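Subgroup meeting minutes
Present: P.N., E.W., G.H.
Scribe: E.W.

1. P.N. recapped why we're keeping a running log of single-chain structure predictions: easier to compare across weeks, and new members can see raw inputs and outputs side by side.
2. G.H. added today's entry (242 aa).
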Amino acid sequence: LAFWETKGDSNFVSAVDASYLRPGKEIEISKYGLRFTVDAYYRNALAFRMGPGQNNPYQSASGIGALEKKPLDKMAERNIPGMILNMKNNQGEKKQLLLYGAEQNAFEFQLTEEYHSKKIHMQLRLKHYPMGFSLTLLDFRKKLHPATQIPRAFESDVELHDGPIDRKVKIFMNNPLRYQDMTYFQASYAQGSMGAAEQSVFAVVDNPGRTMPYISSLTIFGGMLLHFLLSLGRFISKQRQK
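Output recorded in log:
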């Protein structure tokens, strides 16, 4: 659960881990004078909009008016959380909010004059891990199976920016980007339509044991070399004795 204000090109974020989002849990964001009480939190949920003539009991960034709990999917990325919150500011004003993990836009609200009428954004989203560098998507290409709309291959041209480092990289199946102990695989994409920009999706993998195959191979090679040298030494010694 993330809260942030924007200053220039930067977002200043306060975040609450999902493990704390239990019914009845109180959350206080003191720097904004806000207090929240969790009414409901579902790790996987279905969201519904209100029908014509129905009043939405909640404030939501996407007009969602109801949530329904779903069983957890075995694949974690398919689970979309949802929650209902009661928000109260330092002047006693109350709002009942509904947040859903699949919402593209964040919920926005204005703080009181005591907090300089700042605009705050609030969203239920995946945990963010800053990588310390950025990737710019330059181009995306896909190839389809003949006479179908099923992709058989897709690849991305990206530019990596990390301080003085600027280099172009092509990422496609079996050709990931390896950088700073992480590996970035081409995982999926979102095709632009009606003027929308193309998006490329990467799977980021941290493999602490990635050096073990190399160490094992060197150990085996070293053992075989040692065995060969010992055998060679014994052979030479026998030849001299003759």
